Amino acid sequence: MSIHANIKQELDSSVTSDDSKPLSNYPENATNTADDKSTLENLIQARTLALEQNTAEMLPKVLETTSNLLFQKTEFPQTPSSKNEYSSLAHFYIDLFHTLLINSRISNIEKSLIASAHFHELFTLITTTGDPILYKSAILTYSQTYPLLLDLVAKTSNEKLWSDMTKLKRFIISNWKSIYPLSTCENGIISGVDLDSDDKNMGCKLASVKFMSQVIISQISSSSSSSLAIPDNHPVLGSQRRLEKEAKAILDLLLNYLIDEPMMVSSLFIGILNVLAFILKARSQTTVRILSGILKFNVDGKYMIDEKNVLKYRLSKRMVERCYKNFAQFGIKNQLIKNDSPSSSSGAESNTSTTSSSNFYGKFSKISQTLHIIGEETKAKGILNYEETAFINIIPDNERSRIMNNREKFQLKKTIDFNNNLLTDLKNYSLEKLESSGNDPNRIFNNSTIAIDNSYSSIFSLMNSDNSKFDLSQFKTEQKGKESEILIQLASEALSSVDTNRFINALSIVASRYTDLMNKTPNPKEKRSHDDTDNNNNNNNNKEIEEDGYDFNSSEIPTKKLKMEPSQEDDVNKYKVEEDEEDEEEEEAIKTTDLDDTKYLFKLEPMDRDTKIANIKRIIQNILSVKDQREENSLMISANNSNNNQDIFSPLNKIKLIDWKNENSGFDILIRLASRGVDNNENSGLCGDIIRDNLYEYMLQDFDNKVGLMVEWLNEEWYFESISKSFEFATYNKWSLRLLDGLIPFLENNHRRLFIRLMSELPKLTMDHINKMRQICMDPARNSLGFQTLKFLVMFRPPVKGIIKEFLESILKEDATLEKQCNSILSKFY
Amino acid sequence: MTRNTDLKFCTVCASNNNRSMESHKVLQEAGYNVSSYGTGSAVRLPGLSIDKPNVYPFGTPYNDIYNDLLSQSPERYKANGLLQMLDRNRKLKKAPEKWQTNTKTFDFVFTCEERCFDAVCEDLMLRGGHLNQMVHIINIDIKDDNENAKIGGKAILKLADMLSEKVQECEESFIPFEDIIMDILAIWQQDHPKLPLLYSPGFY
């Protein structure tokens, strides 16, 4: 039986038997027996038939059938032909839905119920389609259903329906000026920012504008008759006033566009003027708002979009002016813009209203007349008879950049708002999961120290698979293709606020999973020897194996490749690591892999000494290079990326310490790394001392400004040794003395403040430290620096008073010429 | 070229006799789905003297008008081409129709005079956009005589062909047609400098 016959029979039987059974059984049969193309043809015939006879009953059934066919597929079609068929069916569905809604033979009550029944499908199409033509049609259809659904919600208090309607309304309105669903321009920048794209996606913009006008008319009550009976303080819709407030805000969006849009977007200007006429006619209480807004609409102030096409600009301007004139004429002829004299009305309010109305009448009459004259003159002169230079109206560069900046900020805010909403959803999702697990965190986390497979997600995921289904890829960024940066940012934010112990636990679990996997990975050397034997035994097969990757002649199952993360796909061919679940399978797999053991994913050998040293030097250089970065906002940028503007704004580069400063915050890391971050034994290549060497060298260069850093470093060294009960303070002593050795020869008398600060803030002073001052004190040109420092220490650092006395006495013995300086301290403080 | 017969065209002049009917004929012969209307208050045709036009209500069959003029002065009305015009019209449809009372919807409305363009635009505003359907209204200013009606008819066909072709292309490549209509109109205007053009996207 043909599909058409099927449909016809179903429709006939449903009509003749008066059985209201839907055609829900049909789609399964249809997809099993006929291709989509013929299905569509049959649906078209069914629609024609339904429109000819018994429309009220048959047309909804054809719509139901189409909906079932369109939405029964759980997966979006992948092949081009199936995509085309899906697209054709979607277009047909929307057209049919619209046809039904405007068909006079179907009652409004019936239409409301059908609109409600198909709302979810409409919602899905609008929010997911990438086809602008379908998007446009779907918005116009939603526009048609909006008053019906609003009325239904008012009567039935269907909260879910109203919530979804509101979501869809906001979705459309948030995209109305953008080029959604085209989504991106060629350069990958998200739409709606570039001025040149202002006249793109005009069909969707016009449909959105029409939808907005429908919302405005539906949500503002009619002043003459109560077309929409919404009781005040409706349990779902809220107060009428709130609905009207929202409608007026939407109306302002339209009016502001006319005023603020800098470019000549003629079609949209005309579209808006047309829908404003609808609103003006349907809701007279908006008159003042609309007319005041339109009076600020300056057609002459709009710039050319296509700078080379003067004719197009001239035509556009002429068309907008004509529409403006028609709007004025429409208002005047239909008494929407009235010429009432103030004396004819009564009451203060009426007087105000009539006065503004009269003002509007005069202004719009004049505008209409002037625009008519301009139009006639243009026509009389000849549409192509004009001086090009007189019509060129290119936006100045500074104006363009000002507008672009504002738009980028707005776009950024929009993205941030979107992401914030998504974060709230994520938070709610987590709380919901926690709640459903009886508030037991252990039931939603995956604490297992064994990964279920060797994918990165298995190694790093700390949530149960059932509880990690939130689609994080929805996060948006300013630039397409940079979505992962949001995730990096999320991770970095989480790291900055996570409880340390919890984080250590998490890392331990991940580390255990790695260890477990590494233990399961066969030792490369064993593999090699095993393989050598194997090779000897299977010489005949080897060539084929090497060439083809696996043995076609063998009856064994071909090797399975390790499941890798997408980012590693490039390396998959290099890392042919086998699954290791069964030894036999593994043996067979080994035969087929690249046997170069340096290519294994995990290699169990520790780093050798030289590699360690090379790495630590590279790390030091990278950290030191940060001080030379001059970017604002204290961005920390890796040396390799410093020339790449794109990477400057990467979230990874935005991770920072609290109060991060490029000039010296890197040293905080180096100092901490040297004092307690790395091993400092011989086997480890004395990594700590390598860092200290670098710090030392750096501090001695231009030491005038680095005393704070010196003090910080040596304090860290001392503190770590004191908490680790290393009371010999070997490291501190070694490096503080070395620093003094390096510094003192270069000190002059003008370094008094620097040196006094250094000596007074060093955490521990021994006789060795004081002795380093001998050189200064014995130098006639600099001894005032030495003695001033000693005097200061005696006065303000009592614990070292004793050793200074000892020191003074010893230098006095050595050089009698210093008697005066020494005695001035000794006699006064001892 | 393949003409898109799914598109619904409409031509409009004041009396639905000369310009709109010539364009109606040309588009219909080209295979398009087309209707025609007049926006005036009544059908007005030249009379035997300048101050005595022939006035008929919309809906009066072309055949009746033809016979009426034939009874007045066959020579005169044959000489000024009115009888030939009415003969053409009665072969296309029964009677002149008034735009404001029609309930059909179209994809493109071609008006032949700015006054008619304004009337169509204002009428659509008055209708209130209850159907949420888009329509493109295009005016091509054609002088109301036999010769210019023929020139205008050809020009409208040319524009209809350009629009039809682009609609097809846009549907196939998922480009919104409304994005390119201004470019099409500018190109067309360049080729037809003596037929000033107006355009307005509107809503039923």
From TrEMBL, chain A:
<keyword id="KW-0539">Nucleus</keyword>
<dbReference type="GO" id="GO:0030846">
    <property type="term" value="P:termination of RNA polymerase II transcription, poly(A)-coupled"/>
</dbReference>
<feature type="region of interest" description="Disordered">
    <location>
        <begin position="1"/>
        <end position="36"/>
    </location>
</feature>
<dbReference type="GO" id="GO:0008033">
    <property type="term" value="P:tRNA processing"/>
</dbReference>
<feature type="compositionally biased region" description="Acidic residues">
    <location>
        <begin position="578"/>
        <end position="588"/>
    </location>
</feature>
<dbReference type="InterPro" id="IPR011989">
    <property type="entry name" value="ARM-like"/>
</dbReference>
<feature type="region of interest" description="Disordered">
    <location>
        <begin position="518"/>
        <end position="591"/>
    </location>
</feature>
<dbReference type="InterPro" id="IPR021850">
    <property type="entry name" value="Symplekin/Pta1"/>
</dbReference>
<dbReference type="GO" id="GO:0006397">
    <property type="term" value="P:mRNA processing"/>
</dbReference>
<dbReference type="GO" id="GO:0005847">
    <property type="term" value="C:mRNA cleavage and polyadenylation specificity factor complex"/>
</dbReference>
<feature type="compositionally biased region" description="Basic and acidic residues">
    <location>
        <begin position="558"/>
        <end position="577"/>
    </location>
</feature>
<protein>
    <recommendedName>
        <fullName>Symplekin/Pta1 N-terminal domain-containing protein</fullName>
    </recommendedName>
</protein>
<dbReference type="InterPro" id="IPR032460">
    <property type="entry name" value="Symplekin/Pta1_N"/>
</dbReference>
<feature type="compositionally biased region" description="Polar residues">
    <location>
        <begin position="12"/>
        <end position="33"/>
    </location>
</feature>
<keyword id="KW-0507">mRNA processing</keyword>
<feature type="domain" description="Symplekin/Pta1 N-terminal">
    <location>
        <begin position="131"/>
        <end position="381"/>
    </location>
</feature>
<dbReference type="Pfam" id="PF11935">
    <property type="entry name" value="SYMPK_PTA1_N"/>
</dbReference>
<feature type="compositionally biased region" description="Basic and acidic residues">
    <location>
        <begin position="523"/>
        <end position="533"/>
    </location>
</feature>
UniProtKB/TrEMBL annotation, chain B:
<keyword id="KW-0378">Hydrolase</keyword>
<protein>
    <recommendedName>
        <fullName>RNA polymerase II subunit A C-terminal domain phosphatase SSU72</fullName>
        <ecNumber>3.1.3.16</ecNumber>
    </recommendedName>
</protein>
<keyword id="KW-0539">Nucleus</keyword>
<dbReference type="GO" id="GO:0031124">
    <property type="term" value="P:mRNA 3'-end processing"/>
</dbReference>
<comment type="similarity">
    <text>Belongs to the SSU72 phosphatase family.</text>
</comment>
<dbReference type="GO" id="GO:0000785">
    <property type="term" value="C:chromatin"/>
</dbReference>
<comment type="function">
    <text>Component of the cleavage and polyadenylation factor (CPF) complex, which plays a key role in polyadenylation-dependent pre-mRNA 3'-end formation and cooperates with cleavage factors including the CFIA complex and NAB4/CFIB. SSU72 is required for 3'-end formation of snoRNAs.</text>
</comment>
<dbReference type="Pfam" id="PF04722">
    <property type="entry name" value="Ssu72"/>
</dbReference>
<dbReference type="GO" id="GO:0031564">
    <property type="term" value="P:transcription antitermination"/>
</dbReference>
<dbReference type="GO" id="GO:0030847">
    <property type="term" value="P:termination of RNA polymerase II transcription, exosome-dependent"/>
</dbReference>
<dbReference type="GO" id="GO:0004725">
    <property type="term" value="F:protein tyrosine phosphatase activity"/>
</dbReference>
<dbReference type="GO" id="GO:0005847">
    <property type="term" value="C:mRNA cleavage and polyadenylation specificity factor complex"/>
</dbReference>
<dbReference type="GO" id="GO:0180007">
    <property type="term" value="F:RNA polymerase II CTD heptapeptide repeat S5 phosphatase activity"/>
</dbReference>
<dbReference type="GO" id="GO:0006368">
    <property type="term" value="P:transcription elongation by RNA polymerase II"/>
</dbReference>
<keyword id="KW-0904">Protein phosphatase</keyword>
<dbReference type="InterPro" id="IPR006811">
    <property type="entry name" value="RNA_pol_II_suA"/>
</dbReference>
<dbReference type="GO" id="GO:0032215">
    <property type="term" value="P:positive regulation of telomere maintenance via semi-conservative replication"/>
</dbReference>
<dbReference type="GO" id="GO:0009302">
    <property type="term" value="P:sno(s)RNA transcription"/>
</dbReference>
<dbReference type="GO" id="GO:0001174">
    <property type="term" value="P:transcriptional start site selection at RNA polymerase II promoter"/>
</dbReference>
<dbReference type="GO" id="GO:0030846">
    <property type="term" value="P:termination of RNA polymerase II transcription, poly(A)-coupled"/>
</dbReference>
<dbReference type="GO" id="GO:0030643">
    <property type="term" value="P:intracellular phosphate ion homeostasis"/>
</dbReference>
<keyword id="KW-0507">mRNA processing</keyword>
